Amino acid sequence: xxxxxxxxxxxxxxxxxxxxxxxxxxxxxxxxxxxxxxxxxxxxxxxxxxxxxxxxxxxxxxxxxxxxxxxxxxxxxxxxxxxxxxxxxxxxxxxxxxxxxxxxxxxxxxxxxxxxxxxxxxxxxxxxxxxxxxxxxxxxxxxxxxxxxxxxxxxxxxxxxxxxxxxxxxxxxxxxxxxxxxxxxxxxxxxxxxxxxxxx
Length: 200
Hints:
This protein has helices at 2-9, 14-20, 53-63, 77-82, 84-96, 100-109, 120-124, 127-131, 176-183, 188-196; strands spanning 36-40, 45-49, 114-116, 135-140, 144-152. It is of the alpha+beta class. The mean pLDDT is 83.
């Protein structure tokens, strides 16, 4: 799990990190791109990910601010990063006047990478996660199905095998005979002796 999370937070190469110094806290922003952050709408939050100058032009179209297309403060990625506080104020001010859905509709219509920030109850109802089997009903080996409880499914999909969290963690000693007799070759007498001595 740690390795998986690490791969997601290291969005720059090691050489860049070493050349520019250790990363600093930037909140929701990615320091080398602008706008690339979470913005408050009237009824929620929206993530905007602008990774190119073309996408910035799309943001301006969505905001109906094409008068800023040639503004030297914002024309290139480098200039937007240099003037990030102005960019954040511009985009943030526009976003605060819109509902989440209104902002998403305008941004998506103009091909701006964006997404709503979902609350937990929204995530649990997400049709794509349901379709991918990411909500798994939990079943206890003794008590059966746990009413109202679901766990996260296995996120990786294979073309020829179905992988799921379809079994619970083993109970204490559940696989003793399988391991000691099957794998290690202990006979029943040895197994009984280990149990008698409280070793297993």
